[in-house]
Specification:
Shape: elongated
Helix content: 40-55%
Number of helices: 14
CATH topology of the largest domain: Transferase(Phosphotransferase), domain 1
Number of strands: 9
CATH superfamily of the largest domain: Transferase(Phosphotransferase) domain 1
CATH class of the largest domain: Mainly Alpha
Distance between the termini: 136 Å
């Protein structure tokens, strides 16, 4: 009985069952010789009863061990013990794509194309070594925390797939991604893996498999006879064309190789990541991005609305164990308000780079400046009038003081002359007084004339 703590081959201790499928169970184990964590895949005992299966399994395990590609899991060892056949592989710290899809529902077109490109590169490395995976599905695509993808669990058993489908529930997951030629009983080819990868991309973009059914046979026959439901309308045409061609019923109509599919998927991912997606939601009274005016100057520093700011931040998805960081664009489930179709790229500068229109607060600033100028002009005019009044008052006061001073000066001058004794003649003194009086009287008349005028 297989349970935690059992040691296989006298070397590999089983620690925890981490996955299971139609081929067998996968355990996290420990290599007690090298002291490293490994993944141990234990094949179903029923598969060992098939004639020649053990020899084919061992031969293809050796071939897989020769594949040196970062997107293909490394195979360390093969063995049999206690009527069991097992395969020892690299333990990938990450999360299966199937688990991520069960949490988020669907991925963005850009993220989907990036993962498809990595998976296609890994398939091409296997195809170049004469190996067909035959079991490409989200459960066999592991995503590391850094976002890189690893293809695991090669379906190296060449058992008749149609015969396996008769086992109720044994390969239900595999039947959902099976190619039409495999379902018809033909030999799997590299084009079969391309078809299965197209089905994986379809599920990532739509959130569901292309065909459903009550039994694996029913699902497999739908792959042969029926067309899948159209992808959602928010999927870009270029991405839709890539998936449609990969899922062509005729193998000759699909991408000629996994390398060709990887190339177009990578180009699509690059084009989608360099363009800006429309904001997920916007305030009710705000204009759409294409209606906002564009100015040649730099954008203003006014902060954006909370919804628009959140829309530009990618959100990683973490798992319960071995968190597989699969950043996704905001999905429809993340917003409760109305939103435009997501994932539709638009050309032009980013939405947050659009300069915001002149705010209404600019007009009050100009009006205030004009008011200040008017107030200064009025104050200046009042100061001018005040200065003119002061000057006029001083002029009038100066004239009166002159008259009084002149009169006082006359008496003082006469007294001074008499005291000084310079003029000894009384007649001269009297003449001088008459002259001063006449002069003073003339000035008084002159002032009166000026005042009259």
């Amino acid at each position: 009985m297989i349970r935690p703590g059992v040691t296989l081959g006298g070397r590999y201790r089983l620690d925890e069952r981490i996955a299971g499928g139609g081929m067998g169970d996968v355990w996290r184990g420990t290599d007690e010789v090298l002291g490293r964590t490994v993944a141990v895949k234990i094949l179903l005992p029923a598969l060992l009863d098939e004639p020649g299966f053990a020899e084919r399994f061992r031969g293809e395990a050796r071939t897989m061990a020769t594949i040196n590609h970062p997107g293909v899991v490394d195979v360390y060892d093969y063995g049999s013990d206690q009527q069991l056949a097992f395969l020892v592989m690299e333990y990938v710290e990450g999360d299966a794509l199937s688990r991520t899809l069960s949490r988020v529902g669907r991925l963005t077109p850009a993220r989907t194309m990036a993962l498809v490109a990595q998976a296609a590169d890994a398939l091409q490395a296997a195809h170049a070594n004469g190996i067909v995976h035959r079991d490409v599905k989200p459960g066999n695509l592991l995503v590391r925390p850094n976002g890189t993808l690893v293809l695991t669990d090669f379906g190296i058993a060449r058992s008749a797939l149609v015969g396996q489908l008769t086992v109720a529930g044994a390969v239900l997951g595999t039947a959902s991604y099976i190619s039409p030629e495999q379902a018809a009983g033909d030999v799997a080819t590299p084009a079969s893996d391309v078809y299965a990868l197209g089905v994986v991309a379809y599920q990532c973009l739509s959130g569901h498999r292309p065909f459903d059914g009550a039994t694996p046979i029913e699902i497999a026959m739908k792959h042969v006879r029926e067309r899948p439901r159209p992808l959602p309308g928010d999927i870009p045409p270029a991405v839709r064309a890539i998936v449609d061609r990969a899922m062509d019923k005729d193998p000759s109509g699909r991408w000629p190789s996994a390398a060709a599919m990887a190339s177009v998927a990578r180009q699509a991912a690059a084009s989608l990541t360099t363009t800006v997606q429309p904001p997920i939601s916007s305030p009710p009274n705000s204009a759409p991005p294409h209606a906002q005016p564009r100015h040649p100057g730099p954008p203003t520093s006014r902060p954006q609305s909370g919804a628009a700011a959140r829309a530009s931040v990618p959100r990683p998805v973490s798992g319960a164990r071995g968190a597989a960081s699969v950043p996704t664009s905001p999905s429809p489930q993340m917003h409760a308000g109305p939103m435009p179709p997501p994932y539709r790229p638009q050309s032009g500068p980013p939405a947050n780079a659009y300069p915001s229109p002149a705010s209404p607060a600019a007009k009050p600033e100009n009006t205030f400046g004009r008011q200040v100028l008017v107030v200064l002009a009025v104050v200046l005019a009042l100061l001018v009038l005040l200065c003119a009044g002061v000057i006029s008052f001083l002029l009038r006061d100066g004239n009166g003081s002159s008259a009084v001073g002149s009169t006082l000066g006359y008496h003082s001058s006469s007294a001074a002359i008499l005291r000084s004794g310079v003029v000894a003649d009384p007649v001269s003194v009297a003449s001088y007084r008459l002259m001063k009086a006449d002069a003073q009287l003339g000035r008084i008349r002159l002032n009166e004339g000026q005042q009259t005028l």
